[in-house]
Specification:
Layout: H1 3-25, H2 27-34, H3 38-45, H4 49-56, H5 76-84
Helix pairs in contact: 1-2, 1-3, 1-4
Length: about 90
């Protein structure tokens, strides 16, 4: 595994662990912060560490990055909400 793949896997693991803890402690916040729906929150909150390791090693990022530049007449929060509102994070392994 290359260094880039290792770094992506590590970031994915940390991100999914945070998302799982948020889903367990505050499902509404998890929906807002991580862009997941109710079914995905239920799945995520039940993930074991082994399942999270498996998902984190898919060599693709699961993190959604916010844009660096926003239009001058729109707040960063509004811009991010508009960009991410169309498709929530999918946690399914295919």
């Amino acid at each position: 595994m290359s260094t880039l793949e290792q770094d992506i896997a590590h970031l994915n693991f940390e991100y999914l662990m945070l998302a799982r803890e948020c889903a367990r402690n505050n499902p509404m916040e998890a929906a807002w912060r991580f862009g997941v729906d109710r079914k995905q929150i239920e799945e995520l909150s039940g993930f074991s560490v082994e399942k999270i390791r498996e998902l984190s090693g898919i060599a693709r990022t699961v993190i959604t990055l916010i844009p660096m530049n926003t239009p001058k007449n729109v707040s960063l929060a509004s811009h991010v909400a508009l960009l991410t509102s169309s498709k929530p994070l999918s946690l399914e392994v295919k």
